[in-house]
Specification:
Two copies of one chain form a homodimer.
Chain A lengths: L1 H6 L5 E3 L2 E3 L4 E2 L14 E2 L3 H20 L2 H17 L1 H12 L3 H24 L6 E3 L12 E7 L3 E4 L13 H9 L3 E4 L5 H17 L7 E4 L5 H8 L5 E5 L2 H13 L6 E4 L6 E3 L1 H20 L11 E4 L3 H16 L3 E2 L3 H14 L6 E4 L3 E2 L5 E2 L2 E6 H6 L11 E6 L2 H10 L3 E7 L9 H10 E6 L38 E7 L20 E3 L2 E3 L4
Parallel strand pairs in A: 5-23, 7-8, 7-10, 8-9, 10-11, 12-13, 12-20, 13-19, 18-19, 20-21
Antiparallel strand pairs in A: 1-2, 3-4, 5-6, 6-22, 14-17, 15-18, 16-17, 23-24
Helix pairs in contact in A: 2-8, 3-5, 3-7, 4-5, 4-7, 5-6, 10-11
């Protein structure tokens, strides 16, 4: 099936109604063999990038003007189209990423369900934050009739991530939330899965057209180097950027966007080490379970999750030694799995060459990183004292792959390790009920540094829901106010507009007295769906 | 009274519990005389800036941990203290700004009422966005128990504005919303009113201490040049910046903040020309009223409002000529008023030297800008064709003072003028009811470029309310998602944290099953104040 489906792809950049392929060809990877992928993909030219941004800007007013129910329908249509084309998408994605059928099936369901969640958010209408304040001449200053709602920010550039070819790529959370906000999207596909990106984009573009969205609602740009993305972020029509990937990449885009004549927000999620803190009580009660659960979490997707727990902070006890032994033994016999591409494999090997030989580092499990015929890795487990960890900042850096660092120390040292952490997407705490009273200081430290705190569990697996926060202080993200997963991700792409003393016929529907959309609105401070 | 009250001030920087004045002294202006102000103020040293940021960081956890009702009480106490000290504050502010008793009385009431609005927002608790999603194992991916709320971002640097010594300065909207969010504030006082700033800060600091807030909740730094502000924005403890002022200043702070090792958000409101569009029907029906209302709006605070309407777009008609004549005559006999300081007066005079002599510019009213003994200006009214306006970008730049540019053209030209506009805080439209049908294109253009659209009125006077949006696309602000006035301004200083599968006793009160705070929460997608 893959051969046939890949043969149908063109490797072109999808720009408005057109296909463009004037640029130099390149190919994605085949992680299982180390050979080049079978699709010749055209690196987008500067002109093609500019055209994609212009087409998105041209689509913006039409897309923004679609009634909410049509916009919700559009998201549902896209979700259905992805499911309908799922077998082909998964087959291509598996060839390009080696993530396997089971994982890709889950990821596809997550991707289409995410679009459906945003369809619900749009249909509900509360995200518009329609707010009406009746006039009050007695206030200081006097209050006129004021009505406010959120509107789409404008065309959004979305960068696909290597490690989630579906859920954080062309049809991923950034795209879903931007479309839900009413913003056209130009995706810069990740060069690790260009064929998956094209197949996904074609399914989405057909569905968008069927649902009546204008051409330019979704564009796709291919590129192997950094030039295409840089040009896209600098295109004057682009109003915001969604990115999931490395710190170097996210920071570079942030800096480019901040230096534009008109700066724009960059929502970059750049990963973290997601520390796991285990108390003595938890070790004594369920150390083996924690060892097993942790290994499963750190090896999920061959450790290439931004939420992979990479540091485990433990007391200096016999039970911690048992956990380490069990983890090391299981890691030594773990078959490992594929890494996504040569760059990731080479970087991980080089990083490990340094960190495993640092002073005081014990190698408990010696994973192999293959960079020849195919890229693969088996789990590596290192151990250091808290004092050594605090002295070697390289141990606190993310290893993008199945690598964990156990850090052992007394309570004060463990709190010092927590305090030394930079901004994190997540932290996890394993503790017994009778120990909770003693966790105040750790909780305060983590709350300051972390976007999501997980109890007696593991941070991999990010539920797509209202209460999710997938974000965190820098360097976990460039924008600590926002999440890239969950229903509030839509806010990143909306801006308020207020109407003062507007005649009814010039008000947008969401703000009219009779509430023709039937949405919840904040009227004089209280939420109601009733007309004025 | 002023002599006595100024004599009681020290000109020191207020840092934690301490007063620091190691730096070079400077003085504020006396705009009525052109002489130096009577208070010798100590420019904050680099060490003092660093100390203020550290003291704010030290206060942060204690301030954040205050229960919501205590935080609300604290804001009310500060509001009451400002009112109680109002006579002294106004007397000093009048000497430093020459804005006059009436205006300062209104501004003080606005300032304390703004603090009271935020006390209501805090007590209501909805701003925390407490969100609870019960577990659902059947979802893909499975949904654990997830609970999310907003928490204070950390110490905020606030820059006082020259033109609002109370409402956008030490006790202004940025400070009120940051304290409401639970963030300590370090204010960089504007050098145009250092004594007002000190008096205000002392009243607030006493009230904060009385209400049990930690030292470091409000710091005050004085500085004449850009160095103090630059050092403050670069202090590692500072988590966000609120600024109201010039484009050059706001952009410089934005760029500094973006280049930090840890970038932080800068909410800079940088003014705009706030165009007013008047239709032929409105001119015919009420041209004289519009001329009079416009003159009052453009001369309010001697034209030194960020919402001052600076451009009026008119049809090429006899009625537009009548409006121009009436406006010119009234402007010629208008007494004008004081400008805030020598820099503003000199800049305005230099700018007018250029713009009034541009090709095609008619000078309808020739205001004088005094830069010698006292700074004052009378209204200047210029007129150009739309074609000349479009050809001369300098005419679309803000004149900070009582200057207006009338732009005359046919309908297509007027729409072209609208399209040529950069991001604006406001635009106003004057039209008759039977013309509303023809306004679709103008409305679409303005909605794209403007934060607030005012109908049949004037943009000066920014109500402090839920539906207000005082913001707009760049260059009106550096952050189009946010407002600096109104209850949603609090969001700028909050970030989400999610708790996954947390034991009850480790959850913050807002997220516990029994809802001990009794606040509205989003539970499984629906808002309720009921316990789980």
């Amino acid at each position: 099936m893959t051969s046939e489906t890949i043969a149908r792809l063109t490797g072109a950049n999808l720009v408005g109604h057109a296909e463009r392929s004037a640029g130099t060809p390149f190919a994605g990877p085949n992680p299982r063999t180390g050979e080049a992928g079978r699709l010749a993909v055209a690196e987008a030219t500067t002109d093609e990038v500019a055209e994609a941004a212009r087409e998105a800007a041209r689509a913006a007013p039409t897309l923004a003007a679609l009634p909410l129910d049509r916009r919700a329908q559009l998201l549902q249509t896209v979700a259905d189209a992805l499911d309908a084309d799922g077998e082909a998408i998964k087959a291509i994605a598996d060839e390009e990423t080696a993530l396997g059928e089971a994982r890709l099936t889950t990821e596809l369901a997550r991707t289409s369900n995410q679009l459906r969640l945003f369809a619900e958010v749009v249909a509900d209408g509360r995200f518009l934050e329609a707010t009406i304040d009746p006039p009050d001449p007695d206030r200081i200053p006097p209050r006129p009739d004021l009505r406010r709602q959120l509107l789409p920010l404008g065309p959004v550039a979305v960068f696909g991530a290597s490690n989630f070819p579906l859920a954080f790529s062309v049809a991923g959370g950034d795209t879903a939330s931007a479309l839900a906000a009413g913003c056209p999207v130009v995706v810069k596909a990740h060069p690790s899965h260009p064929a998956t990106s094209e197949r996904t984009a074609r399914a989405m573009r057909q569905a968008l057209a069927d649902a009546g969205a204008p051409a330019g609602t979704l564009g796709l740009l291919q590129g192997e180097g950094v030039e295409v993305g840089a040009a896209l972020v600098q295109a004057p029509e682009i109003a915001a950027v969604g990115f999931t990937g490395s710190h170097a990449g996210g920071r570079a885009l942030h800096d480019l966007a901040a230096a534009r004549p008109t700066p724009i927000p960059v929502y970059a999620e750049m990963g973290s080490v997601n520390p796991l803190f285990v108390t003595q009580g938890a070790l004594a009660a369920r150390g083996d379970d924690i060892a097993d659960g942790f290994l499963q979490s750190m090896t999920m997707g061959t450790g290439q999750f931004c939420t992979k727990p990479g540091v485990v902070v433990l007391p200096d006890s016999a039970e911690a030694q048992s956990l380490a032994t069990r983890l090391a033994e299981a890691a030594a016999t773990h078959q490992g799995g594929p890494l996504l591409n040569e760059r990731i494999a080479t970087s991980l090997r080089r990083q490990l060459d340094v960190t495993r030989t640092l002073d005081g580092v014990e190698v408990l499990a010696d994973g192999i990183v293959e960079t020849g015929d195919g890229y693969a890795a088996r789990p590596t487990v290192l151990r250091v004292t808290a004092q050594r960890f605090l002295a070697e900042p390289q141990l606190a850096a993310e290893h993008f792959g199945p690598v964990a660092v156990l850090v052992v120390g007394d309570e004060e040292e463990r709190l010092a390790v927590a305090r030394s952490l930079e901004g994190q997407l997540t932290a996890a705490v394993h503790a017994e009920a009778d120990e909770h009273d003693g966790l105040d200081e750790l909780m305060a430290i983590l709350t300051d540094r972390v976007g999501r705190i997980v109890f007696d569990g593991y941070p991999t697996g990010v539920a797509v829901t209202h209460a999710m926060h997938h974000g965190g202080p820098y360097p976990a993200t460039t924008s600590p106010l926002h999440t890239s997963v969950g229903s509030t991700a839509i806010r990143r792409f909306l801006r308020p507009v207020a109407y003062q003393s507007a005649p009814r016929e010039l008000l947008p529907p969401a703000l009219r007295d009779d509430n023709p959309l039937g949405i919840p609105r904040q009227v004089d401070g209280a939420w109601t769906s009733a007309p004025l």
